[in-house]
Each structure stands twice: as structure tokens, then as C-alpha cells.
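Folding follows sequence. Below is one example:
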Amino acid sequence: MIRDAYAIAAQPERVMKLLTLLQKPAAEDEGALQAHFANATELLGEIDNSVGDDFSTYARDLEGPSEQLIPPDLTLSKSMTVLSIDQQLFKGAELKPGEPIPDWLFGMDGESYAQIEKLIKGEGKANPAIVRLYIDQDDDRGILFAAQLAGAAEVELAFRVMRLRWNAAIGSAFARSLDLTATEQQLAEYLINGQSVLEFAEDRKRALGTARNQLKSLLRKLGIGSQTELIALYAGFSNAFATAELKEKYLIPAGTSEKLRLQDGSDMPFEVYGDPAAKPVLYLHATIDGAYLTARQQDAAAKQSLRVIAPWLPFYAGSKMASSGLAVVDEFVERLVCLLDHLGIDDCAIVSARVAAPYGMAAVRTHPDRFRGLVMAGTVLPADDANDFSHLALGYRAPLRLARIAPSFVRLYFAAVSTMVRRGKSMAYFQSIYGDSAADMKTLNRPDVAELMQRSMKRTFQDGYESTAQQAILTASDWSKWCRDLQVAVTLICGAEDRLAPPHLVEQFCDRYDFNLIGPLADVGSLAIQQVPEQIFEEAAKIWPA
């Protein structure tokens, strides 16, 4: 688990593998991994310092990859027969298509061949491997290749030369982030430049055994098992720095929210839509939607003569909170009252989306004189003793379980997710959450929703990952105390394809607390706020007397 946590720095998509590992019942001491999760998160931030960029890859990623890989330098069949070869690269070797590979190709230590066997056994699901191949039988140094599976009908192995070299600036940050000693940094530089442990020992006039022990110590410190994993980790650093430098030249200036300066000196950012004379509605957003509204949502609200005030939730868009966990809810509700006072609003209705339900519920329970009713566009369910999250998709279930015992993993999880989105590799994340709902996947591909998500992610991760971590910690808590003894009406709109709160559990939830239930609605999933905004704002408008 430690190795996989640190590997996320090089390949953020490996967070999905770690989610699976952490589902095992025997993994009961994840709390002991807290420090490693925190270190990996810091590491990821160090190498991918594009927090707050434009997330421009989001829409393209959902549509599928559009870029083709460069042709491989070598392809092999599963039976290790040569299929194609770059004759210029292997000009001194007797490698011919249709013939088996020679013994010297993978070297004598067996490490590279073991990597390839592991790749093949993954049957297309394994991550690309970094291996060292030898150009001819007299080659004692070898060249690093990135190997991955290719081919549809028959499994093929495609090898591409890695032109990776140690960069002084990147290498210094790499060593600083991992707390490497000067000797460990120099050893890493040798290996990444394609040199061997033997060359490192000879140049430093040390015994080979001493150098090997230093290598073992380095790998142990990083929680990895081989030289190729070290190279993969550095490759992730190198790629992230290059990507960040390129994007920095073309960053789109960030938009600004309206802000309320609070008595404690902090700011409460919010968005406002509609006629100031219309009936006010507070919109409490979900995790990735943010406080922005699509044109369709704005039209739906305007049709009901509603003015929408959308505050950013705690820790979003640069907002700060003094509390954490459930206490944040009470603190935020008092800020909502201050917002109404600031805008000169006596009372209003609330619309909440999915994970914002606890905030909406706490508001109507604590201040029924200011918040006259609540419409929930989907919900999360209180995490009482009976709720073990087994009804949730993996992308929800694992972070929520871990939030209770290892909150630092939640931050690592969302750090990896945001990096995946920035690198155009977010599909695995969205599939892990919404993949079982055709309605939700279709909605995520809508151009207006894709644009909204892109803008929202920019504000969500403006200052790091505390906002989404707080949402996971809150969702993993028992917030049912705000559901009892309400003096105002609560309506819950449920989708038939909602995997965050399945219809049968929503029905039990509404029966227990005497809430009004609309649904389950066909062709509606967890993203009801995007799918049926007309019905949601129509229900919100009913809160006022005719």
C-alpha cells in the first residue's frame, strides 16, 4: 500500500488500484498509513503545481482520447516473437520479424523480464512498465523503454525508447520532496541517466556491495521495490514539471465571485443569478458542480421568478473555516444568515444538491424563521451504524470508509483525481462513480455541463484539496441530528439511477423523517440538478404561498 501510495505521484490514475486494495477486510490499520498518504499528497502537489489551472482536458477526456501514440521502436508477441523493429536503433542486433527474441535482450538479472510477465498477466489492465533492454549482446548498459500492451485481436507488447534524463532543477525538487541525502540523490541521478550501480560505485571509488546497500536503502525509503519503479517515479516528476511550464504560458485569467467580508476577517464567496426583485433561493452545490449554473439551470430558475444566491461551500474558492468535520456545518449555517442580512433578505428557500444536503438540513432546522423550506436534488444518507456505504459505487465507497480512519488518504485521493483531470485521464474516476448510470454519463458529456465542471474544478482546487476532503469527511458522518423535529417542509427529488442514494434507501430515509419524496424519476441519476432543473426549481417556488 505504501508503494502504491507513492506511485500515485508518477501515475495519479493508480489511485483507483489503491482504492481496491483498501477495500479488503483485513486492511484495518490504514490509520498507520496516514503519514505516507500525507507525504504522497505533498509530493503530488510538488510535482504538479498546477492547482488552479483551467482543467481544459476535462471535456476532451470524457469524449475519449484523441491523440495517437508515436510508433513503437519494438513490438513483440505474447510468445516473445519479434513483430516489428526499428532497424536503426537495433542495427547491431540480429533481431528479425517472425523470430524469437535472443536471451540477452532483457539482460541477465531477470528484473525487466519479470516486469513484462506482470504486464502480460494484467490482460490489458496493467499500467505501462519501464524496462531496460539491451541493444546487442555486447551492450552492458542498456536503454530504458516504456512497455505497454497493444493490439486488439492478439496481445502485443509495444516498446518505446524513453529519452529521460536527469534535470538539475527537477532533480533538486525531486530529492528535496523525498528528503533524499546527497548520496541518494546522486545515485538516483546515475540510474535515471541510464548508468548502472557498478558505474556509480566505480566513479565514487566505493565497493559494489556498498553501492548496492545504498540502493536498497533508497528504495526502502521510497517504499518501492526496484530501479524501474524509481525511474517511473522520476518520470512522473519530469512530465508534471514540463506540463506545468507549458500551461503557465496560456492560463486563462480566473473569474471572480462576489465576496462578503465577515467579522472574523475571512471572506464568503458567492454567485448571484436573476432579478434582485425575484423570490430568493439559496443554492448549495455538490462536490464537482460548484456554485456555477448552466444556462438551462438559470432559465429554469428565471421561469419560476426565482433569484438564485449560490454560496461556495466551506473551503471552496479560497474560503477558510475555523472548524472541521460536523462543526463546519454549524459555522457555515451562521455564515448563511450573515449572507442573507448582507443582501437584505428576510427569508428564502434552499435547494441543495447531493452532498450539500447536511448543510441545507442544518439551516432549516437551526433557523426556520430565515429558511422556509428545503428541496434536495438528490442526497447523501447519514452515516449511522447501519450505513456501511455498501450501496455506493467504489469511487464513493472507498474514500468515505477511509475518511473515518485515515483522512489524509481522502486528500491524496482528490489530489490524484484533480491531477488525472488536468492530464486528461479522468475517465476512470468518473466511471468509478457514475459508470452504472447511463443518464449520468450522458449528462457529463453535455457541452454545457462539461464547461461548468471545468470552471468549477478551477475554483474547487484553488487552494488545494481541503474542500473535497471536508465533503468526504462530512458525508462519512452521522448528520441525522439535523433531520429531526423540523418546522418546515423538506422535499427530496430522487433519480431511478442514483447510485449515491439508491431509491429504496431514499424511500426509507423519507419515511423515517416524514419528508416529501418525488420519484424515483426515470432517466435521472445522481446529477438530478443538471438533468431536471425545471422540476427542482418549480418545487422550490412552491415554498412561497401562492
Remarks:
- The two ends are 59 Å apart (CA to CA).
- The first strand starts at residue 74 and ends at 77.
